[in-house]
Amino acid sequence: MSVRKAAQPRVPAWGGRLFLDAGTILFVGPGGAAEPHAHHAVQLVWALDGDVTVTFDAPLRRRAALVPADLPHALDSTGRRVAIMYVEPHGALGRALDRRARSNLGAEVVGSLEQISFPAIELSVPEAAAWCEHVLAALGATEQTTPLSSVSRRAIAYIEAAIDGMPQLAEAARRVGMSPSRLTHVFSREVGIPFRRFVLWTRIKRAVAATQAGDDLTQAAVAAGFADSAHLSRTFRAMFGLSPSLVLPLAELIGSLWTDPHDAQ
User: Fold this and answer.
1) 119 and 131 in contact (C-beta within 8 Å)?
2) Maximum Cα–Cα distance for the chain, whole Å?
3) Which site from 61, 115, 173, 222 is most exposed, i.e. has the minimal number of CB atoms within 10 Å?
4) d(Cα 226, Cα 207) in Å, to the nearest integer?
């Protein structure tokens, strides 16, 4: 199947809810259609009633299906209420989900979700976060959780304070008093995604916050440390196959954007 790089998902009825956390995006609402494209995130699409059509080499009708990272595909969920989750593939959870998606490409996965209620459009932000956790676990993407230490909290505070520039692993390591390699290990284990990918997700969260504060796409991109709106758009499309102009105005942030200012000291 050829990939039309310029093709973007057509979502004619973005009237749902969209939640964004570091490493996860969840959309709940009316579905749409996406011509052949690829994105870096691992994707789950689940229809409340009826099937959606996912096309890899051939069209497949599924109630729920996984799409591996970076694999060209098309999707048609027009006329369905859907839950669509995008997961960062570089963390432990995303890697586990990607392995499952590739192990049986296009398989029906709704059976794994039978103990989980389809998300209501009225989800609160904490309920959205919990729903994502439950779905990942049901699909076999689990890991031993470790509470954030002061090291990770201080590293996150540094990233958030420096996000309009260029947060550096070496500088974060200096601030927390350990080697970059050691910080990489601690941060990935506790936060769930590597330092540099967390920086990227933090930029996106900042762009959401700037958009909600009234900035246009160019202003939001600069506030989040992207070179310009084109840089933000390229990054967003590569990660999710979506235009940020569609997503950013709808997004609700899971968790606070800012840590305790004292953590940054």
Assistant:
1) yes
2) 55
3) 115
4) 9
- What does the DSSP 8-state code read for residue 10? B
Q: Where in the chain is the domain with CATH 2.60.120.10?
A: 17-117+124-138
Kindly report, as residue ranges, where domains of CATH 1.10.10.60 are found in the chain.
150-238
CA-closest candidate to residue 255, choices 177, 192, 196: 192
Q: Per-residue pLDDT tens for 68-116? A: 999 999 999 999 999 999 999 999 999 999 999 999 999 999 999 999 9
CA distances from 252 to 32, 76, 181, 195, 205 (A): 20, 25, 33, 23, 9
Entry pTM: 0.88
Q: How many CA atoms lie within 13 A of 86 on its CB side?
A: 22
Nearest to 77 by CA among 112, 49, 43: 49
Rg of the Cα trace of the chain? 18
Q: Contact, 105 vs 72, CB < 8 A? A: no
Q: Which CATH class is domain 17-117+124-138?
A: mainly beta
> 144 burial class (0-12, 13-18, 19+ CB within 10 angstroms)?
exposed
Distance CA(224)–CA(190), nearest Å, equals 24
Assign 66 to helix, strand or coil: strand
CA distance 236 to 26: 15
Q: Residue 75 corresponds to which tokens in the numbers above? A: 């999707």
